[in-house]
Amino acid sequence: MTVFRWLIGIVFGLLALGSAISLVLFLAFDIQLWLERARSLRRGAYLAGLLWFNIEVWGRVIWTIIHW
Fold first, then answer.
1. Residue range 15-43: average pLDDT?
2. Do the beta carbons of residue 18 and residue 42 sit within 8 Å?
3. CB-based contact 48:15 (threshold 8 Å)
C-alpha cells in the first residue's frame, strides 16, 4: 500500500504543479488554451485524489471484513 500512496502522491503532485504552471501562463500571456489545460489538469488532480481516498477507504473496509 505504501507504493500506491507514493505513486498516487507523485501523480497528484505533477498534475497539481502542471495546473498551477498552466494557470500562471494563462495569467501572463492571456492565451485561452492555457486556461483549458489548467482546468483539465486540475480535474486530473482531483481524480487522483479521489481515487486515492476511495482505495484507502474500501481497502480498509475489505481488510476489516476479511479479518472480522
1. 98
2. no
3. yes
C-alpha–C-alpha distance, residues 34 and 45, integer Å: 16
Please tell me the pTM assigned to this model.
Answer: 0.89
Exposed, middle or buried by CB within 10 Å (0-12, 13-18, 19+), for 60? exposed
Query: What amino acid is encoded at 21 in this protein?
Result: I
| Cβ 22 vs Cβ 34: under 8 Å | yes
**Are residues 52 and 8 in contact, defined by beta-carbon separation less than 8 angstroms?**
yes
Say if residues 16 and 7 touch (Cβ distance below 8 Å): no
User: What pLDDT does 57 receive?
Assistant: 97
Q: Which of 34, 31, 3 is nearest to 19 (CA)?
A: 34
